[in-house]
């Protein structure tokens, strides 16, 4: 047994999610972090390797690399839609690069045509971090469909949720077999339950989560269509308000699930405005706004203070054999995003139009007050 079968609730969800995404395989796992960790292991990432990730992402994108004894190489994002910059990927590739992990930030989808072209030319696998992008569509295909594997999270704040949970999706039969083995203590399908063929773990999803996700998945298409419509309305409206620039959809996006609705402070209009003050003013109007990531991933104490294991692995490993200095990563767009980005909670995108208009009116009021002040 590898954690699910077609008659189990988890197995039923895997089948339904597979049909929804139009992929060959879905393996449900315990959470999105586990999905990333075992996907990277399954594409061959190991000690001494480097994995390219964006500097503007949740820490799990990096810790999944570290848990495979590999080194995360953090590159900048594109200013238009906050996904990893393909030019940065190309510049960061070395002989040690073992994988590329584009993050579909906030429901946007990264420039997968260019990323895949770069990856293919260097024979590097691509693992999509699609934790923010359930239901987002790029050039007719769902997020998770573009790399060697796609990783989803069903944590409580996500667009598709079961409180916790995750999934690995792939069109590669061999990769799916490895993922299923790693999620279930290293077992192989069809073999005795006490035979363990590789260093796996218990990364399985519960039956309760599988049942809940089936009902949630039924609602997802209509919800994402509504999010896309409301997101377009917000962008068209807020773009007309002095001092605020909505982040544009990635070129080629057909549908944006808007895990985050992202607005930039226009520093040409408000050069000295304090982001926290602006967010507090929006909150006072009843708008669920927050600061997003307040600093780049590189600024986390784990990296700045080098809080690794007692031996300093994986950075001091003989397998790596290079100097690693997180301060050397050049990430000006990420730094600006941390300074100037306002995030509107995704639940607003499911509201009726009158409530969405309240968001627009609050930004307009804020613009007027700050200009007059």
From TrEMBL:
Entries under Pfam families matching the protein: DegT_DnrJ_EryC1
InterPro entries: DegT/StrS_aminotransferase, PyrdxlP-dep_Trfase, PyrdxlP-dep_Trfase_major, PyrdxlP-dep_Trfase_small
GO MF annotation, one: pyridoxal phosphate binding
UniProt GO BP: polysaccharide biosynthetic process
Classification via PANTHER family: DTDP-4-AMINO-4,6-DIDEOXYGALACTOSE TRANSAMINASE, TRANSAMINASE
Record-given protein name: Glutamine--scyllo-inositol transaminase
Organism: uncultured organism
